[in-house]
Design brief:
The N and C termini lie far apart (about 30 Å). The chain is built from 4 helices and 5 strands; from the N terminus they run H-H-E-E-E-E-E-H-H. The chain has a single domain, classed as DNA Primase, Chain A. The chain is about 30% helix and about 15% strand. Strands 1-2-3-4-5 form a 5-stranded antiparallel β-sheet, covered by helices on one side. It binds zinc ion.
Length: about 110
Amino acid sequence: MARIAQEEIDRLKREVSLVRLVESQGVTLKKHGKDYLGLCPFHDNREPSLVVSPEKNLWHCLGACGEGGDVIQWVMKRQGVSFRHALELLRDGDHSPFTAPAHPAPAALAHI
Ligand SMILES: [Zn+2]
C-alpha cells in the first residue's frame, strides 16, 4: 500500500472542519467564546466537557477521559480505526459518513 504523504496528512488536518465532523456524528455543539462545547461521546457526560476549537481545529475533553487531538485522532477514537484508516476515511470524505448535511463550505476552504 502506498504511503500517505505528510502533505496530505497536513492538508486533511487543516481542511477537514472538526466542528462539522463532530456535528455530523450527532454531537450537538454550542458556541462558547471562540470555541464550541458539547457532550463528550467518549465517556458518560452530563455537563458538556468536550471543547472544540475551530481556530486550531483541535478538540479535547475536560472531563473524565481527558482525551484530545485533531481530526484524525477524533476519527480513530470515534470509529475505532487505525491512523491510516482514519486518514482514508477523511480523504474520501465525499463517500464517508462524515459528510456534513447541508452547510455550505466555509469560504476559507474554497479553492481559489
Ligand atoms: Zn470525555
